[in-house]
Amino acid sequence: MLEYMLAKIRHEELLKEAEKERLIREAQKQFKVLYGSNAQQDQVSEKKKETLKV
Length: 54
Hints:
Elements: H1 2-53
């Protein structure tokens, strides 16, 4: 019985850890998308400034 309870607790810990890792990966992916879009916006604004100078 004790072994079963230990295995169950370990299984729950592994599930929690996997969920944390999934959330971290998702957050990193969203950050890359946001950073990429911001970088693209900066490039567009730079090009607009250059065209206005000419």
